[in-house]
C-alpha cells in the first residue's frame, strides 16, 4: 500500500475496523442530535436559520475530515465527497427552513402557488423567473436571499414584538438545602436564584458559628460571578465525562450536590434544568463556616433586586464517622469465643449527632438508628431553630467523640457492620459511599467471619463394632469432621494408640508400644484416614483447625482386632469294592471364616500331578475321590482359603493308594443316531452298528440284550480290548422281514479281574424300514404344464411316499448343472418356482431313507404369459427412418384434427402411456406431456396434438392389458429399443396484428406514409413463413368510402406505408387487415378483431382567441383563452424574449402568470403538435406583486420599561402609491411562537415613500396583512371566473 493510501492514523495505534466503527458512530450521533434539534425547532417554532448554519458547518467538517483520514472502505473521490456535502446540505435546508419544497414545486410539476387565490390547482402556469441569484439562494439555505420568490410569505415578511420588563428578585438558598465543608476541598457553592435580573453586583455577610465573633462583609462583581459560574460549569462537564471517577469525599466546591444533599448525582449536575425562562442561577463561593446572609443584589440597570426573607443559610464543617482502626485487627473468630465484642466508632460534628448503621448476618440485613449523641449533655441549652435551618446555640461548635458498638458472635457465619449515614445538629446528612478506595471501605465497615467449631469422631468403628485386621496387612480407620468450616482448614487431629492388654496379647503383640501423633487434612477434605497394621485401641485426643479448637464426639475410640489364619483337621479312609480298592474319602473339620476352599493335589503313577479344589460352606465337609482309571495314586492337601485369607499353606496328611475302578459301559452317539435321543434307523442289511464306551480294566466281556414287541434275546461279546468299540448287533428275525422297531440294552460288564457288574444305562432304539420313499409330479401326461405372469410364483404339485419330512432335489433342463433342493412336510406338497422352463425331479429322501423318482412323472413345464405390444397400422401413411427408428407422418397445419391407428396385441382392455415431446429452438427436445389412454379393441385411434406448431414426437413408453395392468407394473417400461416412435411437423398458421392500438394523427391532404420511423405506431406484426401477402382496407367514416390495397413483404414487421393513398376528408378513418397468406398455404389464424384494425384521425388547422382583452396583468393573475381544433393543443408563447410551450387538453385554457414582463402568444398546434398555426397579434404586460417588510423582514423582539416607546419600521416594495394594512396582536408566551389574539388593525393609504415608521408604548406583535401598489395587490383578490362568457 502506498503512503498516500494509508490511513492517517497508523494501525499500531488504532486498527482499521475500529477507525470505521468510531467514525461512523460519531456520524450517527451527529445525525441523532440533528433530529433532536429539528424536533425541538419544529415544536417551539424558533428561528432556525442559526441552527441551519451550525449543521452546514458540522456536515462540511465531518465529510472533509473523513476524506483526510483515508480510512479504507470509507475513502471516496473528490466528486463523491462534494456530492455527499451537497446532499447533507440539501437535507439540512429541508429540515431547518433553508429550502422550501413549494419554491420549485411549480417548475417541476406544472402546478402553481396560490398568490392569494383560494384555489388554483386546476390552472396551468408559466415558468417562474430565472436568475443566478435566485438559483443560488435556496442552495445557500438562507445565507443569500432575494426579494422575488415564488413563496407566498416572501411578500409579507417580518414582525416586531414589544414586551414590558417585569420586577427583578434575588433569593438565597432557594431550595432550603443544607451545606457543610468537607475536606480536602473545604469549599461550597451557595446558590442565588435570580428572576428577571441581569446581575451587576452582589453583597453578602458571614457571621462566625457559636456565641460572639465579628461579622465580615464581601461584595462580588459581575465578573467574579461569571468566573464562579465558569469554574462550576467546567467542573460539571468533567463529572459528566468521568462519572465513574465521582467521589463525594473529594469533590470540591463546584460539585452539584453541595447545595442539595437530597438530590442524586445526576440531578445535582444539572441545576439549571428546572429553571424558568425568566430565572437565572448564580453562586457564592465559600470556604469558611458561619451564617451567610444575602445583603444586596444590583441589576445592570442599577436597580436593586428584591430579597425575600429569610435570606440566611448556615454552613458548618461536615459531620464525619468511621471505625477506629485497631493495631492488630482480627477479622476471623470462632463461635462462642467473644460473647460481647465492642467495635469502637469515631464521630465528629455539631451535636446532637445521629448515626445510622446496618448489620448483615449471612445475608440478612438489619437497620439501626441512634440519635442524640452529645458529649456535653449537662452544659448546653437548646434554642429555637430559625426558618432558614440554622441553629442558634451558645456553643454551636463541632465535637469529636468515640462510642462503642457491642456485637454478639454466638452464631457462625459472615458478619458485616456498615456505617451508612451521619446527621449533625444543623441538619447536614452525610451518606457513606462504599464505592471508594479499599482504605475508605475499611474505615466505614467492619467484616467478621465467625467459624463453626470442628467436631471429630471415628466412622464405622467403635468398641462394640471393632475393625478387623488381616495378618501382614493394613486396615483403614476413617475419621470424619462434622460442622467444620472450609475457611478453618486444614485441621489437625491428635491421636493416641494403646496396645492390647496382656489378656489378649500374643507373643508379637507384647513388643508393641503406645504412641501419640497428629494427622493433618489435605485439600479441604473433611475426612482423614489412619493406616493401622497392629491391633489395639486407637483414640482421638483432640482436633484443631487453622483458627478454632474443636470437640471430640463419640465414638472417639476404635478397637482393631487381628483375624487368625484358617486351619483344618483331616482324616483319610479307603473305599473297597468287589475285588479291590476303588477310591478314598476324607473327613474335614475346618476352622476360620466360611466359606472355605480346600486345594488338593492328585498324582497317578509317573504322570504330572493335578491341582484340584472344592468349596465348603460350613465348618465340616466330606470329600470322595474315585478315579475312573486304575493305577497308583497319591492324594495330598496343600492349601486352604477362607473369607479373610487366600491359599494358606495346609500341612495336612497325604495318602497313596493303588486303585482299580469298577468296570462300566454305555452307548455313545454315533453317525446316523438322532441328536438328543439314542435311536438308529436301518434301511437295509440284517445287522446294525452300535458304539459302546467302556470303563475299568480291560479286556471286557459285555452281555447285550435285544427286545422286540414279541420277545427278547441276549448274547455276550467277549475279549473287547479297546475302551471304545463298535458292535454289530443282529436284527431280530421278526423285525428284519417286515420292518419295525426294537431296543438294544447293556445287561452287565465284566472286567479283567473277573468282577462282573450289572449296568443300568439308557438303551438304543432301532427303527427298521423295508419300503423306500418315492416322488413324482402330479398330473396327466402332456398336461403337467402351467402358465403364469412374468416373474410370478408358480406352484408345482408333488406326490410323495414315505415318512416326512422329505428333501427333494430338482433342476431346470435348460440349466442341468444348477441343482435345487426343497424341504417338504406333507405328501401332497408343492415346489414354488419363479422362472419359466421345464423342471425335472432328480432325487428324494424322507426322514429315514433315500428313495426313487417315478420316471413317467419327473418333469413339469412352466410358461409365461406374453406382454402386450403396439405397432402402427399398415394403413397408416408413414415413412420409416432407420437412423432413429422413427415413423415420419405427413405434415399438417396448426389446429387441424389428425390421428393414427395402432394395432395392439395382448388381453384387452389395454392401457397405453406415451410421451409427447417437441423439438426446441436450441436443439434437442422437451417433453410436453405424458398422458395415458385406454382401449378395449385390438385396433385403436391415437389422437395427435396439433394445437401448437413445431415438430412433435410421440413415444409409446408403457403398455398394459388385463394380464399386466399398469397399476400393478407402473414402474416397468418398454425397453427403449423396442418402443414405438413416430413424429410429425405441425405448420403454424400465419397472423397479422397491429403492434399498438394508439390512434394515428394526420392532417388533411397528407399522404398515408410513416410520420416517424422510430416509434411503433402503425406497425403490423406478421407471423408465419415468409413471404407474406397482406390485404388492407382504409375506410373514411365522413365520406363513407372504402379502398382495398394489397401489399407483399418478406419482413415480420411492416409499418403502414401507402404513398398512393391521400387523406381527402377530415374526421376518423379505419384501417383494417382483411387477410394474410404465407408460404405454408395454411389458413390464417383467428385474431381478436380489435387487434386487426387501427384508427387514423385527420384534422384541420387550430386557432386561439383571448377571453379577457386586458393589457395589464399582475403576477398571480390568470389569463384565459378559447381554443379551436381537436385536443390536445400545444400553445407556444414568449416571456421577455424567451420562448416556452404549454400543453392544453380542454377549452377554455387558463394560464397562471408567474413572471413579470412582456407576454406574447406565438403559435398553436393540435393533433400531437401537428397542423401548427402562427399567432402575431396576441400580447400584454405582466407586473410584479408588491411586498411589505416589518423590521426589514426579520423577527425583532424588543423589551422596554414603563414610559418608553418602541419604533416600528415598515418597508414597502413596488410602484407607489402604496396602501397597506397592519395589525397588533398579543405577544406569544414563548419566543418564536405564534402571536395571540388580534388587539387592533389599521390601514394606511396614499403612501408615496418606500418606508413608513410608527412609535408605540404598548405591548404586542406588529405584522402586515396586505399591501397594494399602483397595479397590483397582495393577497390577490380572486376575480369571478364564472361570470366570463365563452365566445362562440
What assembly state would you assign to the polypeptide chains in this entry?
single chain
- Largest sheet properties: 8 strands, mixed
Rg (C-alpha, Å)? 64 Å
- In percent, how helical is the residue content? under 10%
**Structure summary, number of beta strands:** 92
| Principal-axis shape | flat
Low-confidence stretches: 102-114, 116-120, 145-152, 244-271, 378-394, 1280-1288
pLDDT averaged over residues: 82
Secondary structure class reads mainly beta
- How many helices? The count is 9
> How far apart are the termini?
81 Å
Proportion of residues in extended strands: over 45%
Could you describe the 3D structure shown?
By secondary structure, the protein is mainly beta. The protein is 9% helix and 46% strand. The protein contains nine helices and 92 strands. The strands form 21 sheets. Strands 57, 58, 59, 61, 62, 63, 65 and 66 form an eight-stranded mixed beta sheet that branches. Strand 83 (1157-1166) and strand 84 form a beta hairpin. Helix 1 (16-44) runs antiparallel to helix 2 and helix 2 (49-69) runs antiparallel to helix 3 (78-96). It is flat, with a radius of gyration of 64 Å. Residues 102-114, 116-120, 145-152, 244-271, 378-394 and 1280-1288 have low confidence and may be disordered.
